[in-house]
Amino acid sequence: MRRIDVYDLLVGKGNYVDDITYKGKYAVFIRSPYSHARVININKEDAERRGALVLTGKDLVSRSVESGEREGASLTTPLMAINKALYVGQPVALVIANDPYEAMDLAELVQIDYEPLEGIGSIEKALQNKVIVFEDLKTNVVREQTFEFGKINRQGRHLELDLYWSRSSGNPIEPYGVIVIPTDDGLTIISNQQAGNVVSNEIQKALGVKVVHKNVRQGGSFGEKFSLVRYLTVLGFSALKFKVPIKWIETRTEHLMASNGSGPERKFKIHAYYSSDGRVNSLDIHIWEDIGASRDAGQPFKPLGFLTGPYKVGGIRYTGTLVATNKNPAGAFRGAGTPPHTWALERTMDAIADDLGISKAEVRKINAIDSFPYDTGFAYYDSGNPRGLLDLALSRNDIFALRNKNTGVGLALSTDPSTPSGSERVKIKVKNNKVVIGLGFGPEGQGNEHSAVVMASRLLGISPDDVTYEILDNTELPTSFGPGGSRMAIYTFGAVSGAVEELKARLRRKAEVILNDKVIDYRDGYFIGENGGKVRITSLEGEEVDFTYTLQGKYRFNAYPFACDLAVVRVEDGKIRPIKHVVYIDPGTPIDEDLVREQVIGGTAIGISLALYEHYVYDDNANLLTTSLADYGMPTAADLPEIEVNIVPTPSPSTPYGAKGIGEIPVGIAAAAVTNAIEDVIKRRINRVPVSLEDLFE
């Protein structure tokens, strides 16, 4: 079925933030050029004399707001530098003028005196505690926590692995965009903030005024745009203080430097204990997470939802040490901390296979979960058949036939926690002879609006052409969260199906009045009376249903997709080139197979890219060296292989319709399969990504 939510995009009517007609002021952030420096003095008189409105960190007044695992999106730390700048690109002042060019010119007139300090550019340097990011803590270890499930059995064989997953950026096609308008009783905000209807509550608490948040179409997010909330709060305060509308559009360089939404940077120390037949008895995993200039983070602990991946392991200990450095704070980008864990587990399985002299496939078969449901004590795996996916991958003789001295084939097996317990709310009504579904989040491109329309049309027995959608703000759907945590397949279906049933119940009574008869059936969009009369549902206007679907399982996550990937790479002329990637994935019952394929292709492309190309580079003092997409390593379409997606459903008993979330699982497994394929060619152990042949052969 064609996507019903992309026509406007194709004809240039996407209506992004920067497309909206606007009259008002424009803002530019002055950012720290230093990774670590005291802010001695800010002289804004010259800029103000020439018409600028200037806000500094000392001018900003907002309340600290707790919001759970929100990484760089937290409102618990200062929103602008006050006495000390903590990373390159941290906002130090805001300059507001009549247009963006004037704002940039006036920003150059603001004189800021810094006292540069030594910066911390690595986990290792941070752990020395010779330089401290947050001086009141007196240490750069801002949190450490250990979790243990089962007993650690050290009998049998043992290996130790040191691994490293590099920091990356989500780099959405559209960076942050905001319009803030002061009103008589507060603020109206138009932005591409992810989960804007819920996040607006945090801004209200921070600023103490009513906030109406208007959701607009987003050019991608996958968690990256959660971190926009910090900028919204600064801009909202400024609009109230200066009593002017303000528009701010982030630049690409700003996003790379200071989005507060980069992917995780993680160092692993893994002890694996296993028997001579390849069965893993215990894993002891210690991670050190570089969380940048933050005081806490949730990404290091999301792996608690699938600590042993798709494998049966008797005992596991997991220790997370969160380390502050002078880097852009990490955020919740696609997977929010699970991709590096998947990659590390697969590195461990490959190392065990090498140690025992057995195949990579065999060690996975021996350890894969083979009965469902499976309760680990930290997760309830609802359904799946990872061994079946593995067998399908191994049957691909055409792929394995590509292997030669320059071409390797890699294998990886994975699951990922999806559908965190929570709720989603929708509205539904009949208007202008169409069923209209009200959604409370800005479209991000995943096809959630399309899914809602498809579901409603199927449940009502009418054509998708008779169903449409509208985006509602936080005053209309205040508790709608939208995408995040691979949740929307389940929550959209649950909310839409509940709303459809309620709408049918209400309209049945209206149909009986019109027919002057008892309705005995509803079929193919019509209420049918006892005497044979019928009335079409789309003709019954005037009712609106508000429905919230809630799901609460035994543990935090409720559904587990599984996947098995085959990666083919060629190594020649000192370069690694991916040439084919095959995915076998269990998404539960797919609502729309084309959407599943699109999501898997996108996530797989990211995983391949993280394994081969993308990464931030800092020097020892945390000065950012990758300030453009070219330096950073953003791939083009030509750098990525053909990606084949095969859907192998195992319905979930835990969710309506049996669906599972699949937005995040493709990333880590793709990176793992590509890493394994490179090892297959070069015959050397790889312990970090992105993979650099130059580093490996030095």
Low-pLDDT parts are none
| Helix percent band | 25-40%
Major β-sheet profile: 7 strands, mixed
List how many beta strands DSSP finds.
Answer: 31
Distance between the termini: 52 Å
Please tell me the overall pLDDT: 95
Oligomer: single chain
How large is the radius of gyration? 26 Å
Backbone shape: globular
Walk across the major sheet and give the strand order: 3-5-1-12-9-10-11
- How much of the sequence lies in strands comes to 25-35%
Number of helices: 17
Question: Pairing-aware structural class of the strands and helices?
Answer: alpha+beta
Protein architecture, described:
By secondary structure, the protein is of the alpha+beta class. 26% of the residues lie in helices and 28% in strands. It has a 7-stranded mixed β-sheet with strand order 3-5-1-12-9-10-11. The longest helix is centred in the last third of the chain and has 28 residues, at 488-515. The chain is globular and about 80 Å long. It starts with 6 loop residues before the first helix and ends with a helix. 54% of the residues are buried.
Task: Give the structure's gist in a few sentences.
The protein is of the alpha+beta class.
